[in-house]
Here is the input.
Amino acid sequence: MVISLALLFTACMVSSFFEERFLKRDKVILYIIFGIIMILIAGLREVGSVPDTVEYEGMYYGSNAIMQELTEPTFKLFTSILRPMMLGVNALFMTYAFISIVIHLPALWKLSKLPLLTLTIYISYYYMMHEMVQMRAGVAAGLFLWAIYFYVEKKKLMSLACILIGFLFHYSAAAGLVLFLLKDKLPGWQKTILYLIIPVGLVAYIAELDLSLLVPDEFGGDKLTHYRELKDKGLEDELAGWPLRNNILIWINFVLYTASIYYSELLTKHCKYVPIAIKVQAIGFCFLFFAHGVSAVLGNRMNDYFSIATIILWTASVYAFSPRIVSIAISNFISTFRFVSSVIAYALALFFYK
Here is the structure.
């Protein structure tokens, strides 16, 4: 599987250097081929090859009754269809992979003038995190990309529909409704607030402030209660991922976020989705910092959901440098680092938490 992932990533990265020379037809064909390969890799992965697959197997066969009860209606629907057909858990993996990739690829194409570069960025981290590990959240994240697109295009009903459908795949998608509180402009006073989120948030993170206590129980629901129980019983460590101090990929996102605010006017000229993407990532950081007190799992997972918007920022960042080939090379170097780091991180996670 690792070899397949490495070949896929390398082929997509090399193609991104030449995509502006490709005919649109050839680019579309190549894009579809990459998509088919991505579906096959995610759908055919073995149980135990990446984190969460063992848990999904237990949920699929009903041996993990507690988690099965908390899962979303689409998961229950898929299992109720696939299990009576005597299909193994890979049928479930394939179903989610197909749905998610079919959602992601056209969204990435719509949001970028450099779709192959954007696809390289997506494969380097988010594909492995979502389609290979958190597959229910992966579908919701893809729909959230569409929600961002429709929101900026002033099609708010379509944006709302994407978030509501995403909720059926993963309950965390409900947080995406905060999108409707945002404006696709970035005045100076908002930049100041956005700059402050990281330093203030780091203080809150270290102090482990629990702001979730301000949330009424009827809004927190069973999920929030479940996260609190995991923390109280000391069971969340293996689900929370790497702590912030060791997670260099999040620190890289801090740099991207800060630089995107600074260069926002330039980047917005080339990509009108940048202001919303910055604000969406800011919300993700708020969850990371301020939800950590109640649950590191909750904070990290919600940050993962909102940080899908950084795909827009990473792609737009190539317009901050010239010549273009140099900026693409820098982007691909960072993507390569993210890809290798992700593979190593998941390998270590399997080693320590089996």
